[in-house]
# Entry
Amino acid sequence: METYRAAVIGLGWMGLLYDLAKRVPDRFEIGDVDRPTPSLDLHRRFHHHDHPGEEGNPTSYSEALSARPETELIAAADRDPRRLKAFTERYGIQKVYASAEEMLRTERPDIVAVCTNTATRADLTCLAVECGARAIVTEKPMAHTLAEADRMVEACRDAGVPLSCGCISTTHPSFARAKEIVDADGIGEMLSIEASGPGAQHQNWAYFLDRLPSWVVGVSDEPRRESGSDEFTGQGLAWSENGPVTHFRKGAPGVRLSGSKGEMTFEFGTGWRLRQEVEIADGAAVVDVPWPKPQFNVPYGAVYTLDDVLKCLAGELDEPKNSGRRVAIALEVEVSLKLSATAGGQRVDLPLKDLDLGLNYDWFR
# Structure
C-alpha cells in the first residue's frame, strides 16, 4: 500500500479545532495572528470504522489525515503559535511552520489540506501544485472570484492533481449511490434538478449536472448582509442545452432529482428518499422504495473529502464528488443569478466574460 505524506495549512476549526473543542462564536479579524481559541481536549480519541460512510468522525483535516493508514501526517503551518503548539501536543509532530510557503517548499507533501481563510486559498493551492502536491483538499468557500477558481482548477487539471473544495454533504458516499441510481436509469430521463439555492459553498445540485449551464435568470436577491456575505438569496433557474433545468426555489429540499420514471430527494435531517415507477395490475405507479445503503448520516467531515482524493489517486474516481471544477460551475451560476436579479430578472448568458466578478462571504470565511 502506497503511503502519502500529508500536511495541513491553517489550524482553525476545519484544520484542527473541531475535533478538540466546541466552537466559539468570538469574532476576530481575518488577518489576526492571535485568534480566539477555546480550551482544547488534546487527548480526545475516536473509534473509527474501516470504511468511510458508516460514521462521521473525524471532522478536521488533521484528524482525518492522521487516522488513515494511507496517509502520514508530517507537518502543519499556521501563524498562531498556540495552535502550532496544540498540533504538536496532539500528534507529536515537531515540523510546524509559521509560513505556509516555507512548509510547502521544505517538506513538499503529497497531500495538502488548505484550511485558511478564503483570501489566500487560490495562491496556496497553486503553490502546493508547484511544490509537487499530488492531491489537494480545501475548506469552503473555494474562492472569492471566478478568476481565482479558474486558476485553481486549471493548475490542478494541468498537473493531474485531484482537487476537492470543502467538506459538504455531497462528499458522503450516499451521494455516489444516488449518482449510480441516476446513471442506471433508476428514475428514467432526468427532467429537472431542484435546490433551495445555488450555494457555491454547499451545492449538492452541481454533482448531478452533466451539461454546463447556458444561461440563468434570477430574482429577489437581498443586499449585502451584516455578516459580510452577499451570497445569492433569491430564486431562479439555470438552463442547460439538452439537459435538465435546475430550479433554485425557497422551500426546496437539499436537492430533488425528478425523472420520467421517479424521483430522489435529499434532506439534511432525514437523508435520501427514492420513489420509482413500478408495474401494477392497472399499468404503472410511482411508489416509495427502500433506499440502498449507504444512507446519509451526520456529522460529515474531512474523512469523506480525504477518501475521495485517495480514490482518485488509486484510479477509482475520475474526480472528487465536490471537485473544484463543479464548485467553480456553481460559483459562476451564483454570480450570474445575482447579476440577473440586479437587472430585474434579465437573462444572463454563460460563460461570464468578467472573471473578476465574485462573492463575499461571512466574516469568519
